[in-house]
Amino acid sequence: MNIRRSSSAPFLALALAMPLAASADAPGPGVAKTPSSQAAMTQAAKKPNGSGVDVQYTVDGSPQVGRNTTVTIRFDGVVDPAGAGVRLSADPGLVLSGSADLRLPAGEVTTLTVQVAPGAEGISYLNVFTTQNGLTSATSIPVRVGKVAPTMRSGGDLKKTPAGEPVISMPVR
Amino acid sequence: MKKMLWSRGVAMLAVVVLAGCGGGGGGGAAFFPLPGVAGPATSADTTIPVTLSGRATYDAVPNTTGALLYGSISAKPVRGAAVEVLNAASTVLASTTTDGSGAYSVTVPSNTQIFVRVKAQMVQGGSAATWDVSVRDNTQSDALYVIDSPSFSSGAAALTRDLHATSGWGGASYTGTRIAAPFAVLDTVYTAMQKVLSVAPATAFPSLRVFWSINNVPSGGSPALGQIGTTSFSSGSSSGRAIYVLGKENVDTDEYDASVIAHEWGHYYQSAFSRDDSPGGEHSQSQRVDRRLAFSEGWGNAWSGIALARNNYTDSGGPAQAQGVNLDLSAGPASNPGWYREASIQSVLWNLNQQVGFQPIHAALTGGFKTAVAVTSIHPFTAAFNAASPASAGALAGLLAGQNINAAANDPFGTAETNAGGAPAIASALPMYVTAPLGATTVACVSNIAGAGNKLGSFVYLRVTAPSAGARQISVTGPAAADPDFEVYSGRLLALSNGLGSTEAAAVGLLAGDNVVVLRDYNDSAASTCFNVSIN
């Protein structure tokens, strides 16, 4: 795990690398524009009434089975003086290297890099939980191996009615 | 109130005529069917209908304080859902709808191999209240969820078949199919619709598709892969109005988070019956946000409490769904309340419902608020509410004052507002609308002090009064680092212009009277970015 922070605020937490001077601009509402300065990272959606911590991420290169891939996550929007918490968890089959917990100081942009190793082709997720002011949000970062469309799990049997409408048939007793 | 009544099949009274043989001669009783009178079905007879009834239920997992309480699962009725009885060839032999207790009753041919199907769908047509709500799997061809009973013979006499959808919870994780989930979602929608029907019995609800899947994960991308971003309402998808719901175990599931479903349905309500000019985007309770966003999200939270008759908002997540959010809807923010805080709006609207009921709120939202020239926020709501329900104006005024929001009775533009947004100060937060005379240059400023995109100060609002309808050239010039964009409203969105660069210009057909230009800096470039705006 590699942590970088940038802020005018005092640097209080453990840091394993030099501070990163990064812009804090999240994509705005309305019709999307893509200035080059905003194109590098993916902005995670925020749930209403969530932590309010802004999460952006990138997954380097083309992930391969059994090989480490670097995931870079940037956190912003920490306004609680007590800071915010981060916990990482990987889907089954995705191996996360390093610590899974982190504290985010208030008023700083924190950039975290971690290594994940997919165990199979398809999509698996690195799940990022952020907590601030007692509110928690989840973001799942997709790590995709291969180009074959992944098979989606189903809650029942996919059937079609005589009229042609697809239904998920779930047997009950 | 128009209720979601089940259309019970005509109860079949099998008239049995027993004709005894006269004469005392030996033979026992025998049946002699008379013309037009049915005798009891025999084991080989499939022409005689029999009554099939039963009850559909699902495992409800409560969420009272944030985490899902699997230890308190209870069976609740599947209300208002479509029921079909099918034969082995999947031909529909009978159909009906469950009632408010989950009960159904139909007549089916006797001695026929059949099964009962309960759909995660509520449909009612006709000339009064109408609706069509379905819960589908966006990762499986948008298929409709249904529960199917085992196949059985309808036999020769009335019979009962109950169906129960289980949660699939195995004690520490989901070990079985999560059959109950779509029906839990459907039931929250049923509850929300009932609240509207309680004050507007003839409501025609536009079609709504709710998409839930065990694959739905908080990641952007392809909904067909379950990547829905988060639980959200969409009014512009190819599916029409839709709500996407998270379902990924140990990360974030929302099927039992009724508050979350109701919140998103509140946005459906705005889209279907009222109006919502919110720019959307990222936001949280702790932030000072744009007035339109504050009203929209505050309404969503308040509505969840109004519809569900509860005073808190809960949302589970994390491993085993054991973590969660618990918000008090009755209270505003601990500090810095105002027209720019979601929590202030939610507390005003939730408490207003407690004091005066939903009828006047519904009247305002579907009346003057919907057609106001001013963009959607608490001030035009106040004006619409007071106009629709003057006797309740005092109740609203008291609640507004408690959140440091000006309570002027008829001030949709917030002209009398004095709350400038708190600290750190944002100079452009007031006035709520900058007057922009035609033919003159007006200076209008935005700010990134409260954050980027959709926060307090991100937009500046100009009020433009046109003596007559017609095209006007709107020109905006800003500093080199800025990228101005604007929208024009007059009771609805009239136009938008969002090109690149530090200038923006467009010819827009303004309406006679008041129009509103909403201007922003896409780049959110500075604590104070001022534009020269001319409208000619």
Describe the fold and architecture:
The complex is a heterodimer of chains A (173) and B (536). Chain A is mostly beta strands and 173 residues long. Chain A has no helices and 12 strands. The relative contact order of chain B is 0.08. The longest helix of chain B is centred in the middle third of the chain and has 19 residues, at 181-199. In chain B, strand 5 (82-87) and strand 6 (92-97) form a beta hairpin. Chain B has 3 domains: 1-267, no CATH class; 274-419; 427-535, Jelly Rolls, CATH 2.60.120. The two termini of chain B are 52 Å apart. At the A-B interface, strand 2, strand 9, strand 10 and strand 12 of A face strand 11, strand 14, helix 3, strand 20 and strand 21 of B.
Structural domains of chain B: how many: 3
Assembly category: heterodimer
Derived from helix and strand composition plus strand pairing, the structural class of chain B reads alpha+beta
Rg over CA atoms of chain A: 19 Å
Largest sheet data of chain A = 6 strands, antiparallel
Percent range for helical residues of chain A? under 10%
How many helical stretches of chain B? Answer: 8
Order of helices and strands of chain A: EEEEEEEEEEEE
Largest interface (CB < 8 Å): A-B, 59 and 84 residues
Major β-sheet profile of chain B: 10 strands, mixed
Q: Unreliable stretches of chain A, pLDDT < 50, 5 or more residues?
A: 7-32, 34-39
Count of helices of chain A?
A: 0
**In total, how many domains does the architecture of chain A comprise?**
1
Low-confidence stretches of chain B: 1-39
Q: What share of the residues of chain B does DSSP label as strand, in percent?
A: 25-35%
From the 3D structure, determine the CATH topology of chain A. Answer: Immunoglobulin-like
Q: Gap between N and C termini of chain B, in Å?
A: 52 Å
Number of strands of chain A: 12
Strand content of chain A: over 45%
CATH superfamily of chain A: Immunoglobulins
- Give the strand tally of chain B: 30
